[in-house]
Specification:
heterodimer; A: 86 residues; mainly alpha; B: 199 residues; elongated
Chain lengths: 86, 199
């Protein structure tokens, strides 16, 4: 992205963005990124769209288990026997 | 659950849909995902009584599933290990050093991101990740494990989980962004119209 007369440039900041989104950074690093984000529109858009990507993955819908598959699993279990029987 | 076939039902209800989805996204094939699911559930059912810490059941189940998925992949077509470079995933300044133009689609509602072409693009991008990265992003962001549990499931260092998660997320972000960049060039649905429709 761009160079800044900031404590951190865009490239350095980009390395820490998942830690930033996951609230895993120490306070000093988090504040540095917040200051940078406030001054740098491309990085702001980058962080916001990265956060949205993570939200999208976390929200991906799950499909229910097909009844036929559930039935097959039950039959496989019965054929396997119970743990105590082994 | 151990020894009680009736207890298998709630166990399947709890883990079945999640494991099937995890297997499908890891393996890319429904049949392989079903095989992973069956292997994992039966192994869990027959071995769970030996689990020293019942609280760790979920981590243990996913370790079984992850191993089954990785075995399945190795049994299939050979896929050499690939690494993702951070610099390949970051926007580059323009030829004159000007800041890159980054479309901000972050206000697009989630239901728009999770259906139609964008959802397909996300699904495909997950499948196209190298498997070492794909399994990390699925465990962390889809299944909701923390870094420590993910490292435990995969038997790798927490630092490696963090690196792979970050690069996988960046790769997925770029895959979604390409939809909007393509739109901005006028070759697809206009993003402005999408935003307007979604609001």
């Amino acid at each position: 992205m761009t160079a800044h007369d900031d404590a951190m440039n865009c490239r350095d900041m980009a390395e820490h963005l998942s830690g930033y989104l996951d609230a895993e950074l120490d306070d000093a690093l988090r504040r540095t990124i917040e200051r940078h984000e406030g001054r740098c529109p491309p990085c702001r858009a980058f962080i916001r769209t990265l956060a949205r990507t993570v939200e999208a993955v976390r929200s991906m819908p799950r499909r229910p288990l097909p009844p036929a598959l559930k039935k097959a699993l039950r039959e496989a279990l019965l054929n396997t026997g119970t743990p105590d029987a082994q | 659950m151990a020894g009680d076939p009736a207890a298998f039902e709630p166990f399947v209800d709890r883990f079945g849909p999640r494991l099937l989805d995890f297997g499908r996204r890891m393996c890319g094939h429904r049949e392989d995902a079903e095989e992973v699911l069956q292997e994992t559930l039966l192994k869990a059912y027959t071995s769970v009584k030996n689990l020293r810490e019942p609280a760790a059941l979920q981590t243990w189940v996913y370790r079984v599933a992850a191993n089954a998925c990785l075995r399945m992949r190795r049994r299939g077509k050979f896929e050499p290990a690939r690494e993702i470079s951070l610099d390949d995933l970051l926007p580059r300044p323009g030829p004159g050093g000007e800041p890159p133009a980054i479309p901000d689609w972050s206000d697009l509602p989630l239901d728009r991101l999770l259906r139609g072409e964008l959802a397909q693009r996300l699904d495909r991008a997950i499948l196209e990740l190298p498997e070492d990265y794909r399994i990390v992003v699925l465990l962390r962001d889809l299944e909701g494990f923390d870094t420590r549990s993910t490292a435990e499931i995969l038997g790798v260092a927490e630092g490696l989980v963090k690196v792979r998660l970050h690069r996988a997320r960046l790769a997925l972000r770029r895959a979604l962004e390409s939809y909007f960049v393509r739109d901005a060039k006028g070759t697809g649905t206009a993003p402005g119209k999408d935003h307007d429709r979604a609001r």
